[in-house]
Amino acid sequence: MAAPTNNMARGYAVTDPKNYLDFQVKEYELEPLADDRITVAVECCGVCGSDHHTISGGWGPWETKFVVTGHEVVGKVVEIGKDVTSVKVGDRVGVGAQVGSCGDCKWCKNDNENYCPTPVHGYNTLWPGGAEHQGGYSTHIRAQELFVFPIPDAVPSVEAASMLCGGLTVFSPLVRNGVKKGSKVGVVGLGGLGHYAVLFGVALGAEVTVFSRSDAKKADALKMGAKAFVATDPGFEKGHFREFDVIICCASSSSLPIDELLTCLDVGCKFVFVGMPEEGIKNITSQSMAGSGVALGSSHIGCRTEALRMLEIAAEQKVKPWIELMPMKDAAKAIQAVEDGSVRYRTILTQDLV
Amino acid sequence: MAAPTNNMARGYAVTDPKNYLDFQVKEYELEPLADDRITVAVECCGVCGSDHHTISGGWGPWETKFVVTGHEVVGKVVEIGKDVTSVKVGDRVGVGAQVGSCGDCKWCKNDNENYCPTPVHGYNTLWPGGAEHQGGYSTHIRAQELFVFPIPDAVPSVEAASMLCGGLTVFSPLVRNGVKKGSKVGVVGLGGLGHYAVLFGVALGAEVTVFSRSDAKKADALKMGAKAFVATDPGFEKGHFREFDVIICCASSSSLPIDELLTCLDVGCKFVFVGMPEEGIKNITSQSMAGSGVALGSSHIGCRTEALRMLEIAAEQKVKPWIELMPMKDAAKAIQAVEDGSVRYRTILTQDLV
């Protein structure tokens, strides 16, 4: 894998949200290689639900003229800006759903750069000054050093890729809610995010219970390491009063049995949405939270220190995501599978443009 | 003040929720003086919004045959069960919105007895076994030792009374959310609870900002020690991005500008409802919480250690609640004022039955 020629990359681009499954190979200029940026030659890239929401226009009009999605990238460092010190050319690295932040605000300085008010996202985003950033269904991406994570040797690239958004999105609320050996973790919904919540919950030493609408994924959940599986039939909450130290909600339905799930949280604990129902959350009363002094919250990816710790744990605990590989040219098929909910449990696109 | 004669108390009772302003003096038998219980001769009793909700049937049908409300009691210990060691006859004590718990569960043992799944409330409640407990618009109440708090000499009875529910209800979420010197605290709604959130926020060393629908209570808020006052007109949130370490919501409207208020919370912080809108909370999206990784929660009174610390701080910092005194026979007038929202900011009924 080589550095880009004349600053140009090639990627699988969508040019019209109305035809969002029509990926075409496009050549485009990368953003400048600023002093704190790194160029990564893409080896593989995970497919995230966000990719579908963005290219279809479901999350609103685009910021960039066309969109090359992909924000779960693993590849090799092929260029570094002159201020970069943490990696060198040739290193294997990962980049997730954020490639830039201001670096100056309170949050960039206190391990909350994932909450920087002026983030640069993994695609469909502009750098300050206006340069477009495109994503990882491509030959190359550029990112600020802070968002480029060395991948431990023990973690294969295709296994690391979807950890960088999907994994980190659940790992951050797990550790921010104090999950450790013996913690009781609930996971609602077993999709791409939910499967990572099980894997990393278990890797952190927690006892994980999966809540799902039916028993369809029970065998998978148990194979991933979950201790228990609960189909959310009426009355499901009865045997789980105040059992959990945190519940990570990975479902994106807006008709979840939230009041019932809240009774499953121990006093003072939190129900964290990482799934993003497009409609609002309904039927919440403060009374339903007061009974055990619990809270409903949400979370946005994770910070660098969490990403590094996650990768370290993945290496040590041999965390194995359940992934399906496809060549990058099958991006449309991969997006279709996200739309159908048929992915088990994350798709990784492998490089075929070089 | 004497011990009850023949185990009988007298109180201002409501006998029919349809005529909930028709208080009549009634004589009734107290629950037994169990070994861990204390009899308190009532000196004064605060009037809480819950009193109105309960006697009017707004919170559902009654548990007891008639209701003597009042769960912000200060008085003298006149009898103690044989296992009681923390107070003696003659001590001045307070009792709040909880008078009993199981004593055996995990929560009773980890300073969360206010979240015991089998609590005995301040009135309209039964002890295990079925004995009725009546409240503090009366000559005497009985409570478990755990819920009887010595009142520091520096705090007058009429000032301590409404701290025991109103004060503790906001003090607990303040301290559980880490409020200390220099913390930034938002308080939504300046009523009985909100005024205590300001007073105790300030006493803990925080900078307090009050959010209210109009400027009507601005002067009061500043006099209570608030640093700033914000009328929630459209766009009000603009100057307060991520300013607060916690927001205590004391308003009971279900049409609060919650999304806007959430943007005023710092990353990872909490919006705590202690006001209880009868309708649900509307228009919440997980997206509105994800932006700063914040949460919406609630809280239920507080535990003994928090009550004792609150009273200690009230003594040390000379916390002065804004109260109006009335003789107990004016209970109907006091309830009417709660209903009208005209109380500034808490009414205390003083003993007139003995």
TrEMBL record, chains A, B:
Pfam families given in the database record: ADH_N, ADH_zinc_N
- Which SMART domains does this chain map to? PKS_ER
UniProt superkingdom: Eukaryota
Every copy of the Enoyl reductase (ER) domain together lies at: 18-349
- Which cofactor is essential here? Zn(2+)
**Key words of the record:** Metal-binding, Oxidoreductase, Zinc
Can you name one GO molecular function term for this protein? zinc ion binding
Instruction: Report the family membership.
Output: Belongs to the zinc-containing alcohol dehydrogenase family.
The protein's name: Enoyl reductase (ER) domain-containing protein
What gene is this protein translated from?
ADH6
